[in-house]
Amino acid sequence: MGSPIKSEHSLPEDFNNVVRLFPLPNVVLFPGIVQALQLFEPRYKALAEDAIASDQLVTMALIDSQWKTAQSDVPSIAKTVCIGKILSHTKLEDGRYNLFLVGVSRAEIVSELTAETPYRMAEVNLIEERLAEDHELTILRTEICAKFRKLASYRSGWHQDALDQFLGEDLPLGQLVDMVCYSCGAGITEQQQVLETVDLADRGNVVLEILNSQIKASESEQGSAQDFPPSFSLN
Questions:
Q1: Do residues 175 and 31 touch, judged by C-beta distance below 8 A?
Q2: Taking CA 90 as the corner, what is the angle to CA 14 and CA 40, rounded to the nearest 5 degrees?
Q3: Does 125 share its domain with 143?
Q4: Other CB atoms within 10 A of residue 114 CB
Q5: Alpha carbons 34 and 4: distance in angstroms, whole number
Q6: What is the pLDDT of residues 17-61, one digit of tens each?
Q7: Do 71 and 120 share a domain, yes or no?
Q8: What backbone phi and psi angles, to 5 degrees, belong to 22?
Q9: Same domain, yes or no: 139 and 211
Q10: Distance CA 5, CA 64 (A)
Q11: What is the pTM of this model?
């Protein structure tokens, strides 16, 4: 568990919908969530250098788990991605980069671009988040918070003070739903499903189903939650 990141992190005013892609098979980034990354492949060290020298943006894309069966050297990736902004970076003596990346916006890949860079690039459309809540969404928020508290009661590593602080933040529902999904131990496929679910009511109901499944599993055996802040993910 940890405090959510505030929304002041945003895209630059001159953002042109062209992004650098960092595909991984085991990481889904959400807006408002911080992900620790370690980049060591030459192409991704180049990506980090270019991002640090310019707009600080790196876009996380989930690699299709079935791509190797397609007889292609280029992994296929999910079309719904998350644009992230570098919060901090460290270049190690051997040239690797450690980054802390905060999610800024969902986006959908329109097309991948032919680029001279060693890493992949794409044109994207931003996916706007719905901010206003109606009565139905307010009820959904209450249900999600209640289920999350119930799940927390099975998780010895979660501190009540941190949980109270998180649920008392009055976050936009979209960010609350995303962070609950990220923190509750959802699988990568489930996380990608939540990232792809644009309608806020539908997304909340998907997360409720995940929470119910996690609670059921925890009632018989201790579950494992996502650490927050997370450990470094290796490319």
A1: yes
A2: 90
A3: no
A4: 6
A5: 8
A6: 999 999 999 999 999 999 999 999 999 999 999 999 999 999 999
A7: yes
A8: -120, 90
A9: yes
A10: 28
A11: 0.85
- Rounded CA-CA distance 18/12 in Å is 12
What SS3 class is residue 13? coil
Distance CA 225, CA 187 (A): 10
Q: Are 31 and 173 within 8 A, CB to CB?
A: no
Tokens for 107, please give them: 């986006």
Let me know: does 6 contact 179? Beta carbons within 8 Å.
no
The token pair at 194 is: 């939540």
Q: Looking at this protein, which amino acid is placed at residue 187?
A: G
Structural domain of 201: 135-220
Count other Cβ atoms within 10 Å, centred on residue 179. 24
pLDDT digits (tens, 9 = 90+) for 70-101: 556 788 999 999 999 999 999 998 888 999 99
Q: 113 forms bridges with which residues in the sheet?
A: 121
Q: Confirm if 62 and 29 have CB atoms less than 8 A apart.
A: no
Q: Which of 77, 109, 129 is the last residue of a domain?
A: 129
